[in-house]
Design a protein that fits this description.
By secondary structure, the protein is of the alpha/beta class. It has two domains: 347 residues, 3-Layer(aba) Sandwich (Alkaline Phosphatase, subunit A), CATH 3.40.720; 73 residues, Arylsulfatase, C-terminal domain, CATH 3.30.1120. The protein contains ten helices and 18 strands. The relative contact order is 0.16.
Length: 511
């Protein structure tokens, strides 16, 4: 009798254990943030693009929640990434500006971060792609262990470029060490003066395969002039046209290696930031020049990455968040036909401005949540910002968000309600503004040097600006003089939130 019961009892216990393990797994879904670089609201088919084809981005949008009021934390890269990972408004940190490749780590190692929060909840954490949040303490030895960096702020694994594709050092860094570095050919980097005998884009145009327009005329790597000066490290230098494939391979390898434990992957693609260098497979495929080609390439990468999740049986237990660090820019330092081949395409979508701008296109970006089988496809008009991911994911995983600007909007992100933010401080190059509900108030600012370089309106004016985005998404009708009561209300809210910061930016110079 007991012998007959033994297998049944064993099966029951095994079934209970399996059920318990399954519940534990489901309680800790994998989390992936796919972060684009300079992708505009209007660059994605699901957000209205018709000339560019983005089927894999569209799939996430059409089978997930497509947010029409999703915002980056800033209109430029470094501040946005700071806000995303810390849950703090970047303007609270005076150093949260566009950083050179030699900048020290921007995030305090004692600060709460999204990866730290998830580490404490049993997640393995990784960043693959663009970093641009500084490394080291100010005097980096690129030939030894580079710290502090991503590993010191919560990432168990880090495979990154230090800054941007157009800045030196032009090497990959894995867990604090330059990949494939030859000790006999040490790296030297300087952002002030060149190294003797090293060619530059300014002095040696005959060596270039890509012409610079502004600000990109220092060291030449792979025929492309960069920002900053670099010497050595020849074997370690990346091949620009292979960068998208390289980061994709690392992201997919990470997924396969950690599929049996809950993981958080911050997959930070470099496209469509300059220099736009599509792989030959994608060159010419968009009909819109290199900018269009690298967006098509990035879309393919996203498709390959999500296919990897599916092949590994992880798609039903993975929350994917897709968004961009800021709005679009066409001419951002190189002659690459982004302007000439634009045609009727509108990277900024319905909005005014772009990267660097306080107008809406600077921060109003694609924002998608996708979780196969868990999220019902829908479109949401709720207001959400990337700083809210920290508190929301803390709620999802049982973590503690600490004292941050982040708001718990988990139910909204999962499609359970439409309750988004009521207020949001917008930021663009040390200038701030307020969005409340569907209203935007921009205080007076001076200076407009950036407009001359990139042909994007900064949002600066000597007078207050007040816009109703419901009736005027292009922000053409300034209502400040016509709705004094609302303006006063907006100013009071703005000053209460931003108390203590310098709101008088006299000039803006693009680095």
């Amino acid at each position: 009798m007991n012998r007959l019961l033994l297998p049944t009892t064993f099966l029951a216990v095994a079934s209970a254990c399996t059920s318990s393990e399954k519940q534990s797994q489901e309680a800790k879904p994998n989390i992936v943030i796919i972060y684009m670089d300079d992708l505009g609201y209007g660059d994605v088919g699901a957000y209205g693009a018709t000339y560019l084809k983005t089927p894999n981005m569209d799939k996430l949008a059409n089978e997930g929640i497509r947010f029409t009021n999703g915002y980056a934390t800033s209109a430029t890269s470094t501040p946005s990434r700071y806000g995303l990972l810390t849950g703090m408004y970047p303007w609270r940190n005076a150093d949260a500006k566009i950083l050179p490749g030699t900048a020290p780590l921007l995030i305090d190692t004692n600060q709460i971060t999204l990866p730290k929060l998830l580490q404490r909840q049993g997640y393995h954490t990784a960043v693959v792609g663009k970093w641009h949040l500084g490394m080291g303490s100010g005097q980096v030895n690129w030939n030894g262990q580079i710290a502090p960096g991503p590993n010191e702020v919560g990432f168990d694994y880090a495979y990154v470029m230090a800054a941007t594709q157009d800045r030196v050092p032009t090497v990959y860094i894995e867990n604090g060490k330059v990949v494939d570095l030859d000790p006999e050919d040490p790296i030297e980097v300087d952002y002030i003066k060149n190294f003797e005998g090293e060619p530059t884009g300014l002095d040696n145009p005959e060596l270039l395969k890509m012409k610079w327009h502004h600000g990109h005329n220092n060291s030449i790597v792979n025929g492309i002039p960069r920002i900053g000066f670099m010497k050595g490290g020849e074997k370690a230098k990346w091949k620009d046209e292979e960068m998208a494939d390289h980061f994709l391979k690392k992201a997919c390898e990470y997924v396969r290696e950690h599929k049996n434990e809950p993981f958080f992957l911050y997959y930070a693609l470099q496209q469509p930031h300059v220099p736009r260098t599509p792989h030959p497979r994608f060159a010419g495929t968009s009909g819109m020049g290199p900018r269009g080609d690298v967006i098509v390439e990035a879309d393919w990468c996203i498709g390959e990455f999500t296919r990897t999740l599916e092949e590994e049986g992880l798609l039903e237990n993975t929350l994917i968040i897709f968004t961009s660090d800021n709005g679009p820019v066409l001419n951002d330092g190189y002659y690459d036909e982004a302007v000439e081949k634009l045609g009727d395409h509108k990277p900024w979508g319905l909005f005014r401005g772009g990267k660097y701008s306080l107008y809406d296109a600077g921060m109003h970006v694609p924002f998608i949540t996708y979780w196969k089988g868990k999220i019902t496809p829908s479109v949401s008009e709720a207001l959400v910002c990337q700083i809210d991911l920290l508190a929301s994911l803390a709620m999802l995983t049982g973590g503690d968000k600490g004292t941050t600007d982040s708001q718990d909007l988990l139910d909204m992100l999962l499609g359970k309600n439409e309750k988004g933010r009521q207020e949001l401080i917008l930021e663009a190059i040390s200038r701030t503004a307020l969005r409340k509900d569907h209203w935007v108030m921009i205080p007076p600012y001076n200076g407009a040097e950036i407009e001359k370089q990139v042909n994007i309106e900064t949002g600066n004016s000597k007078e207050y600006q007040l816009f109703d985005l419901n009736t005027d998404p292009e922000q053409r009708n300034n209502l400040a003089k016509h709705d004094q009561e609302r303006l006063k209300e907006m100013i009071a809210i703005y000053e209460k939130i931003t108390s203590g910061i310098n709101k008088k930016t006299e000039s803006l110079i693009l680095e």
